[in-house]
């Protein structure tokens, strides 16, 4: 019990209250502790006994509440804050700022003066007008208070001295008082109060203000800035009809809708734990779990759980949509309901929305880190996601996910295994990448200029010689397709078996060679052979990129090809022809596909095609063949056998090149196609169309002449002509080579359609003019025609 | 200002509220039993208000709605707790502190069945909710849609601010007059006295009682402080309010 308060109360009420208190609070040990003290206070009582006994009865009964130290919630700190707000309140007026009550109460002059000297404190703000300026300072006639204490002082005839020391000097000027004139409104802080002499001294130094009022600026201010309560008190004093009530209701702040909340805070009363004199309404008696928010939380949780249960039931019966609806409903009811999140996550994972599933599980774990199912599911889902990423070649991210999964569940065997695997894969791929980079660098240097290239070629010549001995002329990857597509060829099966035998041989050699090459690139890459074999898709892609990246100068390649193609021409035997036929089939197939891809302008057909090709052709071979192609160019004037081998290789090379470059680099395609056209002219169609052609002779002229009209329905006549021209060209090789050299870029542009190519020859209005110059274009046309035909045929077969 | 007739018919059909709503004889004095009942229901409103986190003014409005409703209706005619729940709901709307029926039902359910499990959101719950909403309409009609009232809270707080500056600041900060007067004001709403007296009188009376309780002396001029605050208030008015209020405190001992 607050002894001081109780004493104050007893002094006010007197003996009767004391007796009642003793009666009512007899069981209160607190009261018993202070009761002896209070006797004295009661004796000093000045009470006249006019108070209602009922009130005393009430005080006596509720004394334990009224005088309980915890009853008072407002602290001195709040009072200070309140002072701080005073200045802003004047402007915004969140509540009605009323003039001091004593104006209305008409308290006597003496009493007010006494009260003021009693209550005025150092640091309070007073407002006054200068009435006299002396050399030691100036005197103020006080008008009103402006902070700390709100009283009516205007008619109290108070004056205050502001000493010259208390006037802040503005620099080196002689007299700070020269700024002040009689009649100026001055806001000043109380410096000292002499209560006996009734003298007040004020200061203009900011330091003199009490802590809560420091922000208020002291000194001269205009008349408009006088405090609101002062102007209102002037109004009240002037007109006796202006009652307190009138002024209150006319105030702007009185009508503030949140005035109650504002003032409650200001007086320091809590409205969330409201005070009450009723014993049953003491806020401390209420249980936290009985409050609305707590009940709602519990209710929502149980409701949400009900929904989750229904959802799980749906899920078990395969009604996934209903299940999802239930889960979402549960989460609507109770956001972050762990069970609902886990269940929804599981459903997402089931539906393949792995990212959503992971989000749900993670959210669930955030709210309940020990949830067993959430941990388990998240672990599984992370592994799943990791595998997805692995497929997308995002190995590092996948590895991170595996690690995360393991951090959730250390004993998860799946995650352990996956992590183990991926670490290896990453190591391998890093090695491969290094390798690839090195290779690229090598290639970059190797194919920069033709001069350099030539040097390279000379360097490689030696190697190529060796290589050629072992390398088979057939493309192993094509055998399967050739077997399928050309049953008519009697020798195809034998050739294919032969080729497969060769392939294995070749593979070995290639491996050796590859490893050699790698050793040359970087000595530590001794194991690259294995890595080359077990290449990942990504790696493959890289290789393809390399292939694509390699710029094949069309002119040179064409030159080489033609030089080669010519002499080799009539020297081939039947077996080879069969093989070449298979090869050719593939090429034509590719052509058909490429045509399709051109139609679609999509890469998908390309990649599809790539996939259909054997793994070998995809991986090492293409690269190798390309390499060999380069080599074969250098070794153009080799023996016929070697040349033939080269021929096959080169075809493959150009093939792969075509595959890789199709739809991406026309120019390069053209260079290849021109080369291929040369080959096709020389060898390819011979056996297959031997039935069609009048004689099985290997003369190109006849073949071309017979094939072309057959395959080309719309340009027959012209092709015949061109066919003849071709013969001429084949015979006068040198010229044609020259012509081709000139024409390759032009024909390349036209490789898309046969129509384009026919025009120049028929019109003969192209700048080149001469028939000879058109020849390679014609060849290309023919080849395209063949391709189209094949495409049609292939389509028919497929159907 | 009458409510739509269809809903009225619906309401009349419901067994919860028998047709006869009006008090038969207006002059009949409130019996002691009724007062006790109202006291208990108002205690329920107060407690619910605190648990719902409602401010003092909406709770006061709820109580005034309740008392005004039973000023016009017989206590036996309607279920007072249901009316109280609807009053809380309506007061939340009137005073712009919206309270959800679900919370009101939850808290009330827990009040009546303390320690019980929370309500499921099932048919029972929706029935309860329906009755609260229907009863709200009934109250609206019964009060002729006069549902906004002037409360003493605003007056009391302004009076407190004025009286405070009359007192020495240290004496004031030592004495919890604000808390006590606020508590007294809230407690007023336990009985019909809150609608019998004018807001200013209630505010002055509670402040008077609070000052008296602590023996705080205000300067005396030609006029008493309460005369200044409200011109038409007399000492008898204040005493009447205080007497009514003290009666409520007496009743607390009898009822609970």
Automatic annotation (TrEMBL), chain A:
Residues 123-205 form the S1 motif domain. InterPro entries: NA-bd_OB-fold (IPR012340), S1_domain (IPR003029), TPR-like_helical_dom_sf (IPR011990), TPR_rpt (IPR019734), TTC14 (IPR039190). This is S1 motif domain-containing protein. Residues 670-699, 758-767 have a biased composition (Polar residues). TPR repeats lie at residues 338-371. Residues 502-521 have a biased composition (Basic residues). One of its GO terms (molecular function) is nucleic acid binding.
UniProtKB/TrEMBL annotation, chain B:
Keywords: Cyclin. It comes from the Eukaryota. GO terms for biological process: regulation of transcription by RNA polymerase II. The keyword Isomerase does not apply. The keyword Mitochondrion does not apply. It holds the Pfam family Cyclin_N. Residues 43-141 form the Cyclin-like domain. GO terms for molecular function: cyclin-dependent protein serine/threonine kinase regulator activity. Belongs to the cyclin family. Cyclin-like FAM58 subfamily. May be an activating cyclin for the cyclin-associated kinase CDK10. This is Cyclin-Q.
């Amino acid at each position: 019990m607050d002894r001081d308060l109780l004493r104050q109360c007893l002094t006010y009420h007197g003996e009767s209250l004391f007796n009642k208190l003793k009666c009512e609070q007899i069981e209160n040990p607190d009261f018993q502790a202070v009761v002896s003290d209070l006797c004295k206070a009661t004796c000093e009582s000045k009470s006249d006994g006019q108070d209602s006994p009922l009130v005393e009865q009430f005080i006596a009964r509720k004394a334990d509440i009224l005088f309980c130290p915890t009853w008072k919630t407002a602290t001195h700190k709040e009072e200070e804050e309140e002072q701080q707000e005073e200045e802003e309140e004047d402007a915004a007026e969140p509540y009605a700022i009323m003039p001091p009550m004593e104006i209305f109460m008409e308290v006597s002059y003496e009493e007010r003066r006494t009260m003021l000297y009693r209550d005025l404190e150092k640091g309070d703000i007073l407002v006054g007008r200068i009435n006299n300026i002396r050399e030691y300072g100036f005197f103020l006639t006080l008008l009103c208070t402006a902070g700390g204490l709100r009283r009516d002082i205007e008619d109290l005839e108070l004056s205050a001295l502001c000493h010259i020391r208390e006037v802040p000097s503005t620099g080196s000027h002689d007299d700070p008082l020269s700024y002040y004139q009689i009649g100026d409104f001055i806001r000043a802080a109380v410096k000292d109060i002499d209560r006996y002499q009734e003298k007040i001294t004020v200061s203009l130094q900011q330091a003199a203000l009490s802590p809560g009022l420091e922000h208020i600026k002291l000194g001269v201010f205009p008349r408009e800035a006088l405090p609101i309560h002062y102007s209102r008190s002037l109004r009240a004093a002037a007109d006796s009809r202006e009652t307190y009530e009138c002024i209150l209701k006319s105030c702007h702040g009185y009508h503030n809708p949140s005035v109650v909340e504002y003032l409650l805070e200001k007086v320091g009363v809590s409205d969330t734990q409201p005070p009450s004199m009723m014993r049953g309404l003491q806020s401390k008696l209420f249980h936290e779990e009985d409050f609305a928010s707590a009940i709602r939380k519990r209710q929502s949780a149980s409701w949400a759980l009900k929904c989750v249960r229904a959802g799980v039931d749906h899920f078990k019966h395969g009604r996934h949509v209903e299940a999802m609806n239930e889960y979402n409903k549960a989460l609507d009811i109770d956001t972050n309901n762990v069970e609902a999140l886990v269940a929804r996550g599981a459903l997402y994972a089931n539906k393949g929305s792995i990212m959503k599933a992971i989000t749900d599980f993670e959210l669930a774990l955030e709210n309940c880190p020990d949830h067993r199912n959430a941990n388990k599911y998240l672990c599984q889902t992370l592994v799943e996601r990791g595998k997805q990423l692995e497929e997308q070649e995002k190995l590092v991210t996948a590895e991170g996910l595996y690690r995360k999964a393991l951090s959730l569940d250390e004993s998860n065997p799946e995650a352990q295994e996956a992590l183990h695997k991926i670490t290896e894969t990453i190591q391998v791929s890093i090695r491969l990448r290094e390798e690839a980079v090195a290779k690229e660098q090598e290639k970059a240097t190797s194919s920069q200029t033709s001069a350099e290239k030539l040097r390279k070629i000379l360097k490689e010549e030696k190697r190529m010689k060796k290589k050629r001995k072992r390398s088979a002329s057939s493309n192993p990857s094509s055998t399967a397709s050739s077997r399928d597509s050309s049953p008519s060829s009697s020798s195809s099966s034998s050739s294919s078996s032969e080729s497969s035998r060769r392939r294995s041989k070749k593979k070995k050699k290639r491996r050796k060679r590859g490893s050699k090459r790698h050793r040359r690139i970087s000595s530590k890459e001794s194991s690259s052979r294995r890595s080359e074999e077990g290449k990942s898709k990504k790696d493959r892609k890289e290789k393809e990129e390399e292939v694509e990246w390699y710029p094949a100068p069309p002119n040179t390649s064409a030159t080489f090809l033609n030089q080669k193609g010519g002499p080799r021409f009539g020297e081939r035997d039947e077996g080879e022809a069969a093989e070449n036929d298979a090869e050719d089939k593939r090429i034509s197939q590719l052509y058909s596909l490429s045509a399709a891809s051109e139609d679609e302008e999509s890469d998908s057909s390309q990649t599809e095609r790539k996939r259909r090709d054997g793994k070998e052709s995809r991986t090492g071979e293409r690269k190798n063949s390309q390499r060999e192609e380069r080599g074969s160019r250098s070794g153009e004037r080799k023996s016929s056998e070697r040349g033939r081998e080269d021929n096959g290789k080169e075809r493959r090379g150009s093939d792969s090149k075509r595959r890789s470059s199709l739809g991406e680099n026309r120019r390069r395609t053209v260079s290849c196609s021109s080369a291929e056209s040369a080959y096709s002219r020389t060898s390819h169609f011979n056996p297959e169309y031997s039935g069609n052609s009048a004689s099985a002779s290997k003369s190109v002229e006849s073949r071309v002449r017979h094939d072309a009209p057959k395959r080309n329905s719309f340009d027959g006549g012209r092709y015949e002509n061109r066919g003849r021209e071709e013969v001429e060209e084949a015979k006068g090789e040198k010229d044609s080579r020259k012509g081709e050299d000139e024409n390759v870029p032009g024909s390349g542009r036209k490789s898309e359609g046969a129509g384009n190519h026919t025009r120049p020859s028929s019109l003969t209005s192209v700048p080149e003019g001469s028939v000879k110059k058109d020849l390679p274009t014609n060849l290309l046309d023919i080849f395209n025609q063949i391709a189209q035909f094949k495409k049609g045929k292939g389509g028919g077969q497929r159907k | 200002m009458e409510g739509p007739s269809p809903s009225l018919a619906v309401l009349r059909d419901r067994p919860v509220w028998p047709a006869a709503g009006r008090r038969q004889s207006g002059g009949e004095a409130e019996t002691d039993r009724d007062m006790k009942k109202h006291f208990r229901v108002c205690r329920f409103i107060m407690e619910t208000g605190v648990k719902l986190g409602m401010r003092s003014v909406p709770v006061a409005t709820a109580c005034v709605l309740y008392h005004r409703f039973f000023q016009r209706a017989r206590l036996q005619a309607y279920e007072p707790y249901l009316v109280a729940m609807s009053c809380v709901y309506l007061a939340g709307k009137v005073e712009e502190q919206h309270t959800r029926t679900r919370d009101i039902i939850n808290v009330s359910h827990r009040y009546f069945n303390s320690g019980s499990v929370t309500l499921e959101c099932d048919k029972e719950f929706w029935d309860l909710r329906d009755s609260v909403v229907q009863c709200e309409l009934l109250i609206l009609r019964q009060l002729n849609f006069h549902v906004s009232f002037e409360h003493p809270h605003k007056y009391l707080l302004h009076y407190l601010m004025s009286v405070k500056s009359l007192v020495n600041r240290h004496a004031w900060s030592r004495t919890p007059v604000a808390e006590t007067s606020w508590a007294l004001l809230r407690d007023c709403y336990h009985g019909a006295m809150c609608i019998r007296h004018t807001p200013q009188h209630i505010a002055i009376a509670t402040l008077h009682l609070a000052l008296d309780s602590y023996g705080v002396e205000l300067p005396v001029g030609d006029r008493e402080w309460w005369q200044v605050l409200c011109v038409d208030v007399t000492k008898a008015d204040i005493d009447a309010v205080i007497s009514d209020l003290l009666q409520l405190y007496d009743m607390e001992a009898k009822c609970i």
